[in-house]
Amino acid sequence: MNRILIVDGQGGGVGRQLVENIKKEFSDCVVIAVGTNAMATQSMLKAGADHAATGENAVIVGCRKADIIVGPIGIVIADSLWGEITPAMAVSVGQADAVKILLPMNQCDNQIVGIEDVSVGRLVQYSIEEIRRIRRSKNNTCHTPENSL
């Protein structure tokens, strides 16, 4: 697993936390941040993403190239994140060959029942644990950013 795509919108706060923690834990992976808007992208870039882009086409292209996709569950629901996720974005994430790690967040009229009410920070830690598990089970290592593109 060498490319981790993080998709986020609105202010990019969830994406920022994901980038910071993933870069700290998996420094040998390439982290690609795609924001649904410029503010979200900028937030993730400042957090240390190796590459960043904004908008629908960036999500579509990023999904084709990612090994793991991480973001709030709304990235697979058209019109979520207050309308920032287009149908094409949701389909691209949903149909990607990548492993998807979706944070179960009850926001923007999407309610996920049967989950704990935990902080975003804890959801990020769950994501890190899942990436670690996936990497161990696949027995893959990541490549350095220079070697992976």
Describe the structure.
By secondary structure, the chain is of the alpha/beta class. The protein has one domain (3-139): Rossmann fold (3-Layer(aba) Sandwich), CATH 3.40.50.2300. Helices cover 46% and strands 17% of the residues. It has helices at residues 13-25, 38-46, 56-65, 80-83, 87-95, 120-138, 145-148; strands at 3-8, 30-35, 51-54, 68-72, 99-103. The chain has a five-stranded parallel β-sheet, with helices on both faces. The longest helix has 19 residues, at 120-138.
How large a portion of the residues is in β-strands, by DSSP E? 15-25%
User: How far do the termini sit from each other?
Assistant: 13 Å
Nearest-angstrom radius of gyration?
Answer: 14 Å
| Secondary-structure arrangement, i.e. CATH architecture | 3-Layer(aba) Sandwich
From the helix content, strand content and strand pairing, which structural class follows? alpha/beta
Instruction: Determine the fraction of residues in helical runs and give it as a percent range.
Output: 40-55%
Mean pLDDT: 88
Number of strands: 5
The CATH class name reads Alpha Beta
Supply the number of helical segments. Answer: 7
Q: Which stretches are low in confidence, meaning pLDDT under 50 for 5 or more residues running?
A: 143-149
Q: Biggest sheet: strands side by side, in what order?
A: 3-2-1-4-5
CATH topology: Rossmann fold
Shape: globular
Query: What pattern of helices and strands is seen along the backbone?
Result: EHEHEHEHHEHH
